[in-house]
Amino acid sequence: MSAESKKAHNFIQSLIEDAIASGEHTGKVVTRFPPEPNGYLHIGHAKSICLNFGIAETFSGDCNLRFDDTNPEKENQEYIDAIKQDVEWLGYEWAGDVRYASDYFDALYEFAEELITRDKAYVCALTADEMAEYRGSLKEPGRNSPYRDRPVEESLQLFRDMRDGKYQNGELVLRAKIDMASPNINMRDPILYRIRYAEHHQTGNKWCIYPMYDFTHPISDAMEGITHSLCTLEFEDHRPLYDWVLDNISGPCHPRQIEFARLNLNYTITSKRKLKRLVDEAVVDGWNDPRMPTISGMRRRGYTPESIRTFCDMIGVNKAGGTVDVGMLEHAIREDLNTRAPRAMCVMRPLKVTLINYPADKSETLTLPVHPQNPDMGEREVPWTQTLFIDREDFEVEPPRKWKRLAPDQAVRLRGGYVMTCREVIRDDSGEIVELKCEYDPNTLGVNPEGYKPNGVIHWVSATDSVEADINLYDRLFNHESPDSDKEGDLMDHLNPQSLVVLKGARVEKSLAAPRTDLPYQFEREGYFFCDQAHTEAAGRPVFNRTVTLRDSWGKGGK
After folding, report:
1. Which has the least CB within 10 A, 36, 144, 270, 444?
2. What is the CATH number of the domain that holds 445?
């Protein structure tokens, strides 16, 4: 067992180890990740991916990727392609070919007929409203459908007629015959098949009846020889139905379903339906908007697969619910990037600085480390010229107490460069500060000045030897810890108006004219930023998305 597997030890792993030790389980461990292709994967799915593939890896087994594609009205190829890309990007490889529940439609149909012939299923003509009325409630048992005692031959013929397109949507359904008085409402004669006239992305128009998830899932697991079907806790009440289906058909095996707590993050929604609403109402720029908790959105924002896997390991796998602080996710990416991200300087709100004692026709090249703690990453060259840019927020005419940046007649060190002192402030006709006249100390490159002390260190770039860039300052999409809580009103009421601030005309080091696109940069003193390749190509200049700030700004004293 690898060191990584030991680190990720959880109660499911313990259950499997115990089953192997007792002889209850023999042979290969086989798991599966079974997403519905009706949206993009999000951070909650990442937890399930890491768990299912991680368990298989721990026991030298297999993990299948299977699309639960039983609802063609909400599914399409775009989602399938995106899901495959996300799983691969996270660093996992599924066993064999990609699988689909639709691969088993013929077998599912045969098993449905088997249930009918065993008098374990019947065709029902109750309307949806009537069925809800007959179902009862948590306090009252349900009532048998008047169609429950149809002769087997009649239900079998009606089911075949449904398959052959002789009935319209909603006219008939196939139901399991279990127990309308069961305290578990899922066992009160659940629907197994319904009529849907919709073209399927895999099977075309072959079928006009489609199986329900609770019927499809256990049979698909059995068809693939899954040994451990790992589900989130909302499926715990469905486990008796999962077992009932497998106990009442002549399936090849009976997988074991085990439930674990789903991931809930504060300031975040992980409902695909609600995420789709954000996309459909153009609140965000598609499923891969960097503010979305989708894996593709996080990838575009600059999150690394290593940081997401680390986060999933940090939160663990357990039976208890609860909400995880999104700050843990942000901590994971900071920790990862702090050791790996190359450094660079970016002036987001440029303010011109003219060095009055530096020749206009002179320039020099300063050498700075790519990473101050990792010499193996090499060095970078930064031009020093008479005109520079500093950030407007690094200068105050009347600085507050303990100000550690630039002010009139005060000195600062420019990161990796010289010390300079502000001598004059230039304003335009409206009174806006447009330029600073400063004097640099030529004896301070790499050494402290004599007789005075700089008032801090700020970043900068050459005005003539830097590159224009656009900066997208992304932040949390919601400003409420529980944006989708029914008690807190509509989630749209909790949108953070500062979730995206676009800065045009920023300036970055000359070396970032062709930025790397495999890892974010740390823009010194600002945060971690990732080159948005698609927007860079469209804009004709570098576009950077903020991955995360250097420190948590939402904690104590934060937003």
Report:
1. 144
2. 2.40.240.10
